[in-house]
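cron nightly-structures :: item 1 of 1
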Amino acid sequence: MVIAEQSLLAQLQQTWHQTIPLSQFMAVEPLSFNDNEFKVTAPLGPNINLHQTMFAGSIYTLMTLTGWGMVWLQQQRAQVRGDIVLADAHVRYLAPVTAQPIAAVRCSHIDLSSLSRGKRVKIPLTVELFCADKLCAQFEAKYVSLPLT
């Protein structure tokens, strides 16, 4: 990973921890980012339930932050600013998370040029969560980036 990506990931983690306190308690950590893929993790320990698997709320939060983070990173790359909100989402829990989770989102291109013209941008994303290379959850979401006024 180049220094620019490391710096962006550090800024993103700081933004999460300062503005979404749950992300700090969960110990959410961005792992890697390139133009098309973003990966995030959180340790199982603070996110465990009575079944010794990852709490469903933690899974949902991790996947929400992964999608949100992809939009934020793309905005940084495009040098545009907008308020990112989750407009709609659906999660499918496919298998228990029993090991370190990795949430991954891929996208080929997000056109954010409308933000600079004062228009909102709708961004559909699919986030997948894996543990031990097994797909454990899938998150279909629509994010909206609103122009700053």
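cron nightly-structures :: done
The chain has a mean pLDDT of 94.
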